[in-house]
């Protein structure tokens, strides 16, 4: 297991930017894929450290939705959703991630009026000698230049956030 996230960015073209994070887990690919695709597992590790997750909807299929509420220890709630585009078990998950309201409508991020409304993410899962490497590639879609710039400016923050989430995933994989 590697606790170090590998991160880089590349200009895909003049309209897009991409965040890439890679992490290796000491667990077989089928298990790692399962904990990404089963709400009973997701609620135990997804999200920022110190938050609990309430899964309100989970429909794992193209155009299906994972709608959830994250709650901090002081009661602050933040809603989010994935809209799945592609699922190839146990190799790949493609989804659009956004902030949402309680009803599942896409809304602006509570921390920034210029954060992109939608981020397209592609997760790939590869296995080597019983260890699974996840590569997350993500970038804003249907975004203004200002929103794309904001996304790039937050790479370090996203690296930290995904690092904590992946730490929680690693801990969870060691318990299941």
From TrEMBL:
Domain Activator of Hsp90 ATPase homologue 1/2-like C-terminal span(s) in chain numbering: 26-173
Pfam families per record: AHSA1 (PF08327)
Domain of life per record: Bacteria
Family recorded in the similarity comment: Belongs to the AHA1 family.
Protein known as: SRPBCC domain-containing protein
Organism of derivation: Metabacillus sediminilitoris
């Amino acid at each position: 297991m590697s606790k170090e996230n590998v991160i880089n960015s590349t200009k895909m073209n003049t309209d897009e930017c991409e965040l890439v994070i890679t992490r290796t887990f000491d667990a077989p690919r089928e298990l790692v894929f399962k904990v990404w695709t089963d709400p009973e597992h997701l609620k135990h590790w997804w999200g920022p450290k110190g938050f609990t997750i309430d899964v309100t909807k989970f429909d794992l299929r193209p155009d299906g939705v994972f709608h959830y509420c994250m709650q901090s220890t002081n009661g602050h709630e933040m809603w989010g959703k994935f809209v799945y585009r592609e699922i190839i078990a146990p190799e790949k998950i493609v989804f659009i991630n956004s902030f949402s309201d309680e009803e599942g409508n896409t809304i602006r991020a509570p921390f920034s009026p210029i954060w992109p409304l939608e981020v397209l993410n592609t997760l790939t899962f590869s296995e080597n000698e019983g260890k699974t490497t996840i590569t997350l590639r993500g970038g804003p879609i249907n975004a203004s230049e200002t929103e794309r710039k904001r996304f790039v400016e937050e790479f370090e923050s996203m690296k930290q956030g995904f690092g904590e989430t992946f730490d929680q995933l690693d801990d969870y994989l060691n318990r299941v």
